[in-house]
Amino acid sequence: MLSDLELLIEYLPFMPLVTFVVSIIGLTVALVALTVAIINVRRKSGMSVKGRVSISNSVYAEDDYVSNITIENCKDKAVIIFEIYLMVGRNYYIELESFSEPHILKAYESYVARYSPVEFYASGMKPVDLNDLIKDSKVKKRIVLSTSQGRYVVKDWIKKWDPVIEQLQGKMTLGIHPVRYDNKLGHYGLNIKYAVKLINEDGKSIIKPIRLIDIDRPKFDEFRLTKNALSSKDNLAEFINSKIDEGIAKFTLVEVIDIEAVRLESINNGYSFNRQTLQYYGWFEHVVNWRLKNLLAKLILRLTKVDKGTYKKVGNVVVAAILTILIGGFLDKTR
Fold first, then answer.
1. Domain count, the chain
2. N or C, where is the chain less crowded by C-beta within 10 Å?
3. Is 172 a member of any domain?
4. Structural domain that includes position 197
5. pLDDT digits (tens, 9 = 90+) for 110-123
6. How far apart are CA 97 and CA 82, in angstroms?
7. What are phi and psi of 141, to 5 degrees?
């Protein structure tokens, strides 16, 4: 067996490599520790606030106004805020918030406020007209905070993604919003035709939703509805009252409400109820196919572009038509 000295002599040529590896590991650990320390110092020092403001108008007000504001503390330390302003241009400050007690925006916390339309703007007791400046997109508008560390101008904007923006940009995206009607009865889907308000024997108020397919179904314990009863609101009320008069129904009818009429009135009758069925698009259809169609549309637009004092070039129109047929046929086959 080799002695300790012989083993040391045998591995002696590898010592520089071991030393180098250990040095690299130590340096890496030191750099990681330094990076973490710098991140922690930056996270807790200074001030970093993001913001977003929305400017709206109303038919009830002459001036545009700030409808809502959002500010976000991006540091691991609290910010004490006394007032919030909207700076229009470089020297006009619209007061949005003046806290009776300083508002403490905690670490990584957000503050959201909504505002109603204004009567007018004033400086002291003198009314001023800011409408043109507020509407002008060339005039810079920034959120300014009055803080315990002085005046702070919010430079970083809170970005908002919206599928409608992509849709307006021509991308294969469709923004969809749920439509609901608001009333005291509650919310019912398109299947509900009527709502029957009644008071049972215990004196409890009950609302029973009625569908057109509820003929001969046990919606009421004492009787079944008929096709004629469901033909109109008045017929349904008359049918239920007849059952009450006959002593069959053991409740008191309060009202029969035509939910379809309420729905149309609440939604302002602005929607067609002939709904379009949407289909599923895979990755190729959504990304590749859409890009090819978009490039094709731009190419056709460029080829058929009318120069000043000239007519459309027949050759370019023919080329565009051929490209449309060929590429359109290829894309249809890939579906």
1. 3
2. N
3. no
4. 192-266
5. 999 999 888 889 99
6. 8
7. -130, 125
Whether 80 maps to a domain, the answer reads yes
For residues 316 and 300, is the Cβ–Cβ distance under 8 A? no
Q: In what order do the strands lie in the sheet with 141-147?
A: 92-105, 79-88, 141-147, 150-154
Token reading at 24: 């690299």
- Residues 53, 153, single domain; the answer is yes
Q: Which two tokens stand for residue 236?
A: 């349904």
Q: 3-class DSSP state for residue 259?
A: helix
> Which letter, b or e, does each residue of 237-262 get, where b requires 16 or more Cβ atoms within 10 Å of its Cβ?
bebbeebeeeeebebebeebbbbbee
Cα separation, 80 vs 86, whole angstroms: 18
pLDDT tens digits, one per residue of 275-311? 778 888 787 777 777 777 777 777 777 766 655 444 4
Give the whole-angstrom CA distance, residue 118 versus residue 131: 11
Here the tokens at position 117 are: 């339309």
| Helix ranges restricted to H, the chain | 4-11, 15-44, 131-135, 163-168, 233-245, 259-266, 283, 290-303, 314-333
Q: What is the C-alpha separation between 142 and 155, in angstroms, rounded?
A: 7
Task: Give pLDDT tens digits for 43-57.
Answer: 777 888 999 999 988
Residues 6+ apart with CB under 8 A from 139: 88, 89, 133
Q: What does the chain come to in residues?
A: 335
User: What pLDDT, on a 0 to 100 scale, did the predictor assign at position 94?
Assistant: 94
